[in-house]
Write a structure and sequence with these properties.
alpha+beta, Rossmann fold, D-amino Acid Aminotransferase, Chain A, domain 1, 3 domains, 7-stranded mixed sheet, 5-stranded antiparallel sheet, 26% helix, globular
Amino acid sequence: MGKKRVAVIFGGRSVEHDVSILTGLQCLDALDTTLYDGFPIYVDPLGQMWTGPALRKRSLYPVEAAASQGLTSVQLDLASAASGGPRFLVSKKGFLGTKQDALPFDIMIPAIHGSNGEDGTLQGLLEFAGIPYTGCRPLGAAATMDKAFTKRTARAAGLSVLPELVVDRPEKGAFIDDAWLRTALSDAMPTCDGPWIVKPVNLGSSVGVSKADDADGLMAALLAVFRMDGQAIIEPFVPNLVEYNVAVRGTPSGDTVTSAIERPVRGADLLNFTEKYMSGSKAGAPKVDAPSEGMASLNRVINPDELTNKQDRLIRETATRVFDMLDLAGSVRIDFLCDGKTGELWFNEANTVPGSFAWFLWQDAPEPVGFLELTSAMIEEGFKRSSTRLGRTDSSVGGSTIFKAG
């Protein structure tokens, strides 16, 4: 049997476009070349798809004048899976006009963070076209991108989460009513009169997150969020804040397993995007199946000593419940907030396409997993999930035929 062709798609129409490039490049370098033949599909900020060997070079980015860089414009053929297998269409101009060549593949790895990639939209498109892909299905991807929905679901399941208030972006020309906001905050979190954390409801981890110490700061934070999203979520700021993250995935035997736990090292009150991706050391020194240099990342402490056995167990049990409850897949990172003084823990959010697929947490897991092994497991899981989604779709099977052939 020959190698499987793997399309790694990254970039995208997302505020996390640049981070997605780094994840995509790392993933391409971490494919087992004895089993898979990977190639890049770059989605530029306007939504155009490109491919070409030059896309594997980090020095190419930001991409300017893509065609002059030797890149080829492609389109996903949405009808191809039903007639021979998934493929991209490549338009080439020749002496006799423009013709379309096929760029076939077997499975796609979505490495797009945030909007239009991690939120279920890309997954829904691939489901519609019958194209195998890795990671979460549309339901889990969409549910976890909506932080408010995820929290309500977790709360209903008895998991510990912070109280929150969701604020809709006002219509154009309108303003947020101060009196309404004060009353709504008092109802949602009566014991908190500031400071607060404000973040978008529907964007990735750490994007657009800010701390508001007073009413003026809160209004400014809301306006900043509304430039990126139609909804903002307000939560009380946790005193003595410590953050913990753990990755979760399923195994071929049906078990759900967790990785090492990390404590990000912050230089400020909270871990915003700059703190997370643009400061500190590299994303862990590769130990197993080392990929090429990855994204610049924060300092982190792996399996921190201050965690008690009870806290360690609570983090892992909660993360596993969230993963199973929302039928997640791939390598998912689950984030927690902690009051470092009292030790109280709250589930914060789930990231279904975490930066670098959180490989650095798996290399220090109780049973270490290298990046090559992780990508291989994601691919095989993707094939399995995609093959079992639907049976026959013709109307006669469901007894719903209305129009008869003449």
